[in-house]
Amino acid sequence: MAGHGAQEHPHGADRLCEAGDRVYSRAVRRGRVPRHDADPVPCLLELALLHPDPDDMDWLVPTSPQEVMTRLLRGVYDEVSDSQRRMGSAVAAFEWYAALGPQPSPASGTDPAAPGSAIRVLEGDSRIQGALDEATQACTTEVLTVQPGGIRPEHELTEGLHRAMALRGRGVRMRDLYTHVARHGQGLLNYLELMGDSVEARTLDEVIDRLILFDRTVAFIPANADRTLALELRHPGLVHYLVTVFERLWRLAIPLTASLPDTGIEGISHREQSIAALLAEGHQDAVIAERLGISVRTCRAHIARLSETLGAASRTQLGVRIAQVGLDRSRASSSEAAVIRVAGVPGLPGAHGVPGQESATGR
């Protein structure tokens, strides 16, 4: 059956075939479907979207849409994280090889930081702001940005408003990605209202480090943790790679004008579901707070609320409850693994985010 399905249904759960869409939708609406209904669409069983009803093997019951969505998101997050690591290695290697080449002499009059360079290291706020001003003035079509962190401070939004208005005046389209927390910032809502249809914003639980792309030809990314260095990238391969990362995140993100999806568990918010999943992965409170763009205090308040809602008296018990109700997002992880991670056993690996360079565009 696996081979048959792979030949006739070469797709994943992110894009079902027409027949699979019909049968799965019917199963969700009715709660189950007869097994023979799934004979023409073996992909639904292969993708674990349908599975046998333990009470009656002649029927199939659907995996909940919420569970399918979290499974898809986790796969993309893992892919993007891996892509970020590979991109960092590629940039480091590029710089190393570039340093081996002949260096221009002062007499030659060639500036190693000329605008045409594939990679420029920008040091200091004035240098970074100047490079962003130049790229803004040259932009004619599109600006893509990723803005990590939480609610955008008013001074950031005001600081770059003149650039955004200049872009709007030239008909440049802008797309911005934020974390879900940014939805609660009135300054951002005011900014988007002012910019009108020229800006479209979407949000995710987590985003990658800060990124600004102009016309898909030049990109700016942070180069250190204290926000004093940035990289200006004009190498077509690197820029194309960053555009691909952005587009994949954009496809998964939720428009700012739309509500966040319901968790399907009474008393647990979307943010608490995200915190539960990161706890199950073994991350500490400070790391979770940074990745979701909230304060450590707020993060711990949500964890306390999770414990109360799930009836957990300790972190160990919270891990059990998270696994039992499926908030760990990972269907492959056992309950015991989630318990160990949430309990904070020393030696378990944890991902540490690196703060990004603040955006001079102010969005």
TrEMBL record:
Database matches in SUPFAM superfamilies: C-terminal effector domain of the bipartite response regulators (SSF46894)
CDD domains, per database record: LuxR_C_like
Gene3D superfamilies assigned to the protein according to its UniProt record, in alphabetical order: Winged helix-like DNA-binding domain superfamily/Winged helix DNA-binding domain (1.10.10.10)
Record-linked PROSITE patterns: HTH_LUXR_2
InterPro entries linked to this entry: Sig_transdc_resp-reg_C-effctor (IPR016032), TrmB-like (IPR051797), Tscrpt_reg_LuxR_C (IPR000792), WH-like_DNA-bd_sf (IPR036388)
Alphabetized SMART domains for the sequence: HTH_LUXR
Domain HTH luxR-type stretches: 261-326
PANTHER family: HTH-TYPE TRANSCRIPTIONAL REGULATOR TRMBL2
Protein name: LuxR C-terminal-related transcriptional regulator
